[in-house]
Amino acid sequence: MRIGVLALQGDFALHGQALARAGGASRGRSTGEGRPPVDVESVEVRKPADLADLDGLIIPGGESTTLLRLMAEWDFVPAIEKFHAAGKPIFGTCAGLIVLARDVENPRQFSLGLIDLSVERNAYGRQRESFEARGEARLDGRPTAIEMVFIRAPRIRRLGASVETLARHGDDPVLARQGDVLVATFHPELTDDPAVHRYFCEIVRRARAR
Ligand code: GLN
User: What is the separation of C-alpha 190 from the centre of its chain, rounded to a whole number of angstroms?
Assistant: First the structure.
């Protein structure tokens, strides 16, 4: 499968590396069971035409206002809407989540509205601009230990009824999914742990098989 990483701004290169780790065979740290390698190629997406022939897309973290400006400049908004309408999975981390949300606060700004949630930008305050935490996600019904790195992170303030929470930090949902759209308020690409990228690859594999 071919997964694109939107390469306009932010830490897109690290997602390519995370997908390579996700593709590798693994022992499954928490379960001990072996997993076969996943055949995944990552592609940097710089213009809408690059989306052709991709099976999934990652929108990385960065600064959502800058990302939105560049997306508008390159005409990515209709292209990503079309990609989504074609049933291709999208994974947004941090600024990528903000861009995909239904509503954005602090301040209000345009967003694609591809997942039914409201998000507040930079919601952890200055003293906790970045922090790391360990948590547990439910990925395909299995509890999976995950490492989470939060950087000027957004906070999900409202979740629509059809959005599933896959992980929390305290009371806050931090990993959520609605159909083919997966979002994280943290940065899974900044750890060596490929669990969340593997899970996205699995969503893409199933979408391809439909
Ligand atoms: N604070 C950024 C924003 O509001 C997001 C931070 C991130 O992507 N790490 O867009």
Answer: 13
